[in-house]
Design a protein that fits this description.
This protein is mostly helical. Helix content is 79%, strand content 0%. It is built from eleven helices and no strands.
Length: 260
C-alpha cells in the first residue's frame, strides 16, 4: 500500500473530529471563561479594593490551564479511545496513512483548535474581568508554558487510551486526573498552601501548581526562580512519557501474541 503524506485534508478531518465532540468545545471554550468570571465575582467582593485586580489576574492566569487540559487530556483521550475501540487506526493504515502520520495530523489539528480556544479565552475573559497589564515577557512565558503542557497532556492521554483501548475506562481516568489536577493545583478556589503537607508535596511535583500560585509574580514582572517549576515540568513530562511507552509496549505484546 502506498504511504500517504500528511495533507491539509487529513488535518481538517481531525479538526472535524474535535468539533464533533460537544464536551470538548464546552470544557475548552465556555467552561474556563465561565469559571474565570464566576470565581472573580464570588471572590473579589470579599477582598479589599486594593487587591481585587491582582486577585482577578491570578484567577485569569489559573483558569487558562483549563483550556489545554480540556482539549488534550479529556477531549483527545475520549476521541482516540473511541477510535481504538472501532479499529479506526488500523483502517487508516490500510489506506496508506501510517500511525506516525496520523498522530502528527492529530496533534497539529488539536494545536490549531487550542490556539483558537486560548485566544478566545484571553479576549473574552479580559473583557469580563479586569486584569493587570502584563509585562511582555510574561505573556510569552505563560503562552509557552500552556503549549508545552498541551503537548504533555496529549502524550498522557494518548498513553492512557493506548493502554485501555476503550472509551469507558479512558474517559473515567482522564476525568479523574482532570479534577484531581484542578483540586491539587489550587484551581478550584482552595490554595495549595492550605492543604495538608502530604498533599502539598504531591502538588509541588505538578507544573500547574506553580502557574496558579506563582505566575502572578511573572505577570507583574517580579523576580522569580523558575528552577522548581522547570523541574516539575520535566518530571511531569517524564511520567507522561513512561505511561505512553508502557502503552506502546503493551500494544506490541498484544500484536505479537496475535501473530503467534
Amino acid at each position: 500500500m502506498k504511504k500517504r503524506w500528511i495533507s491539509g485534508r487529513l488535518i481538517l478531518y481531525e479538526v472535524r473530529n474535535i468539533l464533533g465532540n460537544p464536551f470538548t468545545i464546552f470544557f475548552s471554550t465556555i467552561f474556563p471563561i465561565l469559571m474565570c468570571y464566576l470565581l472573580s465575582v464570588t471572590t473579589l467582593n470579599q477582598l479589599p479594593e486594593y487587591v481585587r485586580v491582582e486577585a482577578a489576574t491570578s484567577i485569569f492566569i489559573t483558569m487558562s490551564l483549563v483550556v489545554p487540559m480540556s482539549i488534550f487530556m479529556i477531549g483527545y483521550g475520549a476521541n482516540y479511545s473511541q477510535e481504538l475501540e472501532k479499529d479506526v487506526p488500523l483502517r487508516m493504515n490500510l489506506f496508506g496513512f501510517t500511525e506516525s502520520k496520523v498522530m502528527i495530523a492529530k496533534i497539529l489539528a488539536h494545536l490549531l483548535f487550542f490556539t483558537i480556544a486560548l485566544a478566545l479565552y484571553f479576549i473574552v475573559s479580559s473583557f469580563l474581568v479586569k486584569v493587570q497589564v502584563p509585562k511582555t515577557e510574561a505573556i510569552f512565558v505563560l503562552v509557552g508554558t500552556l503549549y508545552v503542557l498541551a503537548v504533555i497532556f496529549f502524550i498522557l492521554a494518548h498513553g492512557i487510551a493506548t493502554i485501555f483501548k476503550k472509551f469507558g475506562p479512558t474517559y473515567a481516568i482522564t476525568m479523574l486526573l482532570y479534577f484531581m489536577f484542578m483540586i491539587l493545583c489550587g484551581m478550584m478556589g482552595m490554595s495549595t498552601d492550605l492543604m495538608p503537607k502530604a498533599i502539598q508535596v504531591i502538588a509541588d511535583t505538578l507544573p500547574m501548581t506553580y502557574v496558579t500560585q506563582d505566575f502572578i509574580k511573572v505577570w507583574q514582572g517580579s523576580s522569580y526562580n523558575f528552577v522548581p517549576f522547570i523541574q516539575s515540568m520535566v518530571f511531569f513530562a517524564a511520567i507522561a512519557g513512561i505511561i505512553l511507552l508502557f502503552g506502546i509496549r503493551k500494544e506490541k505484546r498484544v500484536l505479537n501474541t496475535r501473530c503467534n
